[in-house]
Amino acid sequence: MQAGKLILTLDRLLELHLDLYQTALKKTDQLKHNQTDELKQVLQHEQVLVQSIKQTETERITQASLFLGRHTDLTLTACAEKAEGAEKTRLTELKEEFKEVMDKLKAANQLNQQMTQSALQFVTMSLDMLIPREQTPNYQRPDTMRKTEPNRRSLFDSKA
Hints:
The chain is mainly alpha-helical. The protein has one domain: Methane Monooxygenase Hydroxylase, Chain G, domain 1 (Up-down Bundle). Helix content is 72%, strand content 0%. The protein has 4 helices and no strands. The protein has helices at residues 4-32, 36-68, 76-82, 85-130. Helix 1 runs antiparallel to helix 2 (36-68), helix 1 packs parallel to helix 4 (85-130) and helix 3 (76-82) packs antiparallel against helix 4 (85-130). The protein is elongated.
């Protein structure tokens, strides 16, 4: 069996991953510039891309299974080993392109994660400054002090 359909599916999958990488770069830019409305739109687009990737990956698994004649070890390397001629060359190229895109995507996602964590730490610190912890105005004997953190005052008065 020829690998033509498999190669077309892999090309589509690579294209989707490149779009996902571009989306990750947009996310980075919007995180840097605190553009939350635009970030929401990018996140929605990212969800659509991820769903498309899942569907295309399912199709790739089916095509690889048909090409290899088995249901295990459906890797791109295994497909390239079985293919011949131009198909083998193209599958090897696709493998390298996937590796490159995945490395870039991983780095972009790690940066976005670090930036998001920094922003959350800043928000938490700001809230801690706005809502100070209750302090005991009187002396307490050290052996009767509570071991747990005292309750924090709420930002909103529930009795209002």
